[in-house]
Structure formats: structure tokens, C-alpha cells
Amino acid sequence: MARFLIRRGLTMIALLFAISLVTFLLFIVVLPGGNPASMLAGRLANPSEVQLISHRYGFDQPVYVQYFKTMANIFDGSAYSYQSSFNVDDQIRQGLPTTVSLALGAGIIWLLVSILFGTLAAIRAGRYTDRVLTVLSMVGVSMPPFFLGAVIIFYLGYKTSILPINGYVPFTQSPIQWAYHLIAPWFTLSVLFIGFYSRVLRSTILDTLSEDYVRTARAKGLSPRRVLVHHVLRTSLLPIISLWGLDFAQVIGGGAILTESVYGLHGVGYLAAQSVGKLDTVTLLSIVMLTAIAVVVLQALVDFLYAVLDPRIRLA
């Protein structure tokens, strides 16, 4: 176990370093206009003005010096957006509760509903229930969040006023209003994942049902429910848990850009959308690093869950 933890920790550090380096080079070196000095100087600035700003802020220093300085600023909370004139860490901290609330509620919904739909479709394979769930899954996968969100806002917001159409209420202020304002965003964000996850789980369950250890469990006289819960589902959930960890981390790191933009939720995704429009490289780098850290950490937790769900897996 100790060797696994050490190896996992070194792998996490190497991955974060590689992601940060590649992202920095893409934004600063490869991307046209990625030099913040050009943006600060304006479109009408002459080369001498751009050079003066570059020297003042250190943009003319070697790339490796700029890289380590930028990463140090991001991790110590002093990263500053030259385009928007704000502290990036403060902006992410303000938007993170909204994004975490959206990701947490939607993540629980799409995980539980996917397990229910995928299991029903597998045990009813080829029957009417399976066909209906298959159609619903395909519709969910094909439904863009911006379109579904617009439909919900129009019919449940403007038309009937059943649900609020925008805004966010902090959980500490009112848990009921917090959930009430997030029902529509949760549903919008969950639909696509439910359609995809349920199909993956259905296929995995059908494959697992033909395994030797499942036939052995049936031969021992175990009830179908016990075989399904303790032998089939326990193994079939492995790919779902892995996908859920990656997708949940991606949503926390700003992956819900469309959902947050449609519903006016000023979270990390909304900040990412605004930064892309302004080509705000420092803010985008900070959000990318947030996503990378979330993905790496949650993936490490998923590795531990693998060993719990499947006894055949051993942590070296």
C-alpha cells in the first residue's frame, strides 16, 4: 500500500507538471496573440509600446522563467488577470461554490438514474422496457444542454413560472431556495450523462452475466436479486465509477460552460467562457490547473474504489 501511495503521488505530480507545461506553451508560445503585452497595449499600439509593456511585466524574459513565475503565482493565489484586472484566485473562489453545487447535485442525479436505467435495460434486454429506455437514452445523448436549457427556461420559466429561470442562492442562505434554483440546471446537465452512462452500464451488465463466476453463483442456488446485486452490479459499476470521477472533476473545472451560461450561474464555467472570449490566458491557465488537479485527485480515489468493488483487483 505504501508503494502504491508513493507511486501514485509521483504520477500525480508528473501529470500536473506535464499538463501545466503543455498548456502554458500553447497559450503563450503557440497561440497567436497569446502574449499579454499585445493585449495590454491595444490594437493600435506600435512595437515599441508593446516592447515597453513586455519589459515592465516580464513578458520578455525566457519562456522557462515566465512558466515558473506564472505557475508560482497561480498556486500561491497571486495570479492577476491583465485583461480583466482582477485577482484570478478570488474570482475562482467566488464561482467555485456555484459550480460545486451544480456538479454535486447533477452528479448524484446522473449516477443514480443511470444505474437504475442501465440495470432495468439489462435485465429486460430485448423487451419493451429496454426499447423505451434505449430511445430515451439516445434522445438524452443527442440533446445539447443549451437547447434543453432554453426549452426549460421558456416553458417552465416564462410560460408557467414553475421554476426560476436564473440566479443562484447560496446553501448557507437558504437550503430550500438553493435546491429550488438548481433543479433546472441539475436536470439539464444530467440528461446527457444519463443517456451515455445507462448504455455503458447495460452493455457491461450483459457481458458480466455470461461470466463463469456468475453462472457458479446461480448454480449454488443464490437468488437472482443476490446474484445481480452482489456479483453482477459490483463488477459492472467499475467503468461507471471511473467515468463518473472524471466527468465530475471536469464539471468542477468549468466543464459546465453551456449550462452555467444558459442559466446565468456565475461559476467557474461561466468564468471560463468569459475568459475564452477575452483570450485571458492567466485565468484560463488557472482554470485548466483546477480541472487537472480535480481529475488527478478523483482518479486516485477511483483506484481505491476499484479494490472495494472488485476483490480481484489488488493495490500493489
Map the helices and strands.
Elements: H1 2-30, H2 36-41, H3 47-57, H4 63-76, E1 80-81, E2 86-87, H5 88-123, H6 128-142, H7 145-159, H8 175-208, H9 212-219, H10 224-255, H11 257-263, H12 268-278, H13 281-309
Antiparallel strand pairs: 1-2
Walk me through this protein's architecture.
With 316 residues, the chain is mostly helical. The chain has two domains: 2-76, no CATH class; 93-309, MetI-like (MetI-like fold), CATH 1.10.3720. The protein has 13 helices and two strands, in the order ααααββααααααααα. Strands 1-2 form a two-stranded antiparallel ribbon. A hairpin with a 4-residue loop joins strand 1 (80-81) and strand 2 (86-87). Helix 5 packs across helix 8 (175-208) and helix 7 (145-159) crosses helix 8. The model has no long low-confidence stretch (mean pLDDT 82).
Low-confidence stretches are none
Largest sheet: 2 strands, antiparallel
What structural category do the secondary elements indicate? mainly alpha
Number of strands: 2
CATH H level of the largest domain: which superfamily? MetI-like
CATH top level of the largest domain is Mainly Alpha
**Rg over C-alpha atoms, rounded to the nearest angstrom:** 24 Å
Strands ordered across the widest β-sheet: 1-2
Shape: globular
The CA-CA distance between the termini, in Å, is 6 Å
| Beta content | under 5%
